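Bug report

Summary: structure tokens for Putative N-acetylglucosamine-6-phosphate deacetylase differ between web form and batch submission.
Environment: batch mode, default settings.
Steps: 1) Submit the sequence below via batch. 2) Compare with the web form result.

Sequence submitted:
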Amino acid sequence: MVALFLFSFDSVATLDTCVRIFKASTRCSTVQALEAASLHPARMLGIEEEQGTLNYGSRADFVMLDDDLNVLATYLAGEKVYSRTAEVEKDKEQFRGLSTAGEKRLHNGNRKATVGVHQ
């Protein structure tokens, strides 16, 4: 008898989070963890000539990471499509309208929250 179980936990883990967890769990090197998320899957799919490396002639899809493997920027075909700095600036801009004391009461239904902005 064969039983098949499908589970749905409705959670999402980004690839950078998976790489950090893999590295910590296996105690492998940063290079090995990154290759496990890029080069090895590309080899398994037979597309390592186009993806999974930064060799001449391959697509220039890559991420820039900090020392803790957090994404700083994402490039697709050599063009920057995401920057953590830009996201932080966008978040700051969104809250610039707060009072000069840097706090404002926000009402969300029956709940109240205080948001503080530190510049």
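Above is the batch result. After comparison, the two runs are identical; trailing whitespace caused the diff. The mean pLDDT is 75. The chain is about 30% helix and 25% strand.
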